[in-house]
């Protein structure tokens, strides 16, 4: 499980491409490797990945073809910055919202609005298949960052970023047109899907 509180931004140190697999080497700072073990889970741009090994330069992860096709990890090049968060431990403070690291797909950063020195609004595309889970003041995971949805329109939704979020994540400089990993709030998804199933069953039964 992850909290959606990004612990840092690190550059992609190396990239090995195979036909059905990419091996990513992320230059995670030494201070963030405390008690790191082989097989540990770390979210990269919100995607839960398994540590295969590490050396002085980087921590390494294998990414399967399904994840490469579904997320923005398949678009990464050496030098690109990536949000990372290590898996939560028992007793950790949940500062954002519970996230699984199972990304549903990508949305497009449509527009950046620099409202003033301290406020930035980001507008994202709203895929029809996820619209029922996205609503005003609900939670959403974008590139592994837990954010509150500010506005929802027919084809877009918006979030606002405080200066600390801009500093601590890749969103501060992310250009328009970028593909961003999306994870809807899993609790919202369970509730919406459960209500839909109950209503569908009642309709079949003529209740």
Strand order of the largest sheet: 1-2-5-4-3-6
Radius of gyration in whole Å, from Cα? Answer: 18 Å
Q: Give the beta-strand count.
A: 12
Number of domains: 2
SSE pattern, N- to C-terminal: EEEEEHEEEEEEHEH
Please state the second-level CATH architecture of the largest domain.
Answer: Beta Barrel
Number of continuous helical runs: 3
Please describe the biggest sheet, giving its number of strands, its sense, and whether it closes into a barrel: 6 strands, antiparallel, barrel
State the shape.
globular
Which class of the largest domain in CATH terms?
Answer: Mainly Beta
Helix content: 10-25%
Mean pLDDT: 91
Structural class of the helix and strand makeup? Answer: alpha+beta
Describe the oligomeric state of these chains in a short phrase.
single chain
Beta-strand proportion = 35-45%
Find the CATH topology of the largest domain: Elongation Factor Tu (Ef-tu), domain 3
Report how far the terminal alpha carbons are from each other: 39 Å
Q: Can you tell me the residue ranges where pLDDT is under 50 for at least 5 consecutive residues? A: none
Plain-language structure description:
The protein is an alpha+beta fold and 207 residues long. It has two domains: 8-86, Elongation Factor Tu (Ef-tu), domain 3 (Beta Barrel), CATH 2.40.30.20; 105-192, Elongation Factor Tu (Ef-tu), domain 3, CATH 2.40.30.20. It is built from three helices and twelve strands, in the order E-E-E-E-E-H-E-E-E-E-E-E-H-E-H. It has helices at 65-70, 163-168, 186-205; strands spanning 8-18, 21-26, 41-44, 47-54, 59-64, 81-86, 105-114, 120-125, 139-142, 145-152, 156-161, 179-184. The strands form two sheets. It has a six-stranded antiparallel beta barrel.
């Amino acid at each position: 499980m992850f909290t959606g509180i990004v612990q840092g931004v690190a550059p992609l140190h190396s990239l090995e491409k195979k036909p059905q697999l990419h091996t990513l080497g992320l230059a995670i700072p030494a201070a963030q490797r405390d008690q790191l073990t082989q097989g540990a889970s770390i979210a990269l741009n919100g995607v839960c990945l398994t540590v295969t090994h590490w050396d002085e330069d980087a921590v390494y992860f294998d990414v399967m073809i399904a994840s490469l096709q579904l997320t923005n990890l398949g678009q990464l090049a050496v030098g690109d910055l990536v949000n990372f968060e290590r898996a939560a431990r028992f007793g950790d403070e949940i500062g954002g919202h519970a996230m699984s690291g199972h990304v549903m797909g990508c949305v497009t950063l449509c527009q950046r609005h620099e409202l003033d020195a301290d406020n930035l609004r980001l507008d994202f595309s709203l895929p029809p298949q996820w619209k029922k889970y996205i609503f005003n003041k609900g939670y959403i995971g974008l590139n592994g960052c837990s954010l509150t949805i500010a506005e929802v329109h027919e084809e877009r939704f918006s979030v606002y970023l405080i200066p600390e979020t801009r500093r601590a994540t890749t969103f501060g400089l992310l250009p328009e047109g970028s593909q961003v990993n999306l994870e809807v709030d899993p609790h919202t998804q369970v509730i919406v899907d459960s209500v839909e199933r109950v209503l569908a069953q009642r309709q079949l039964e003529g209740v």
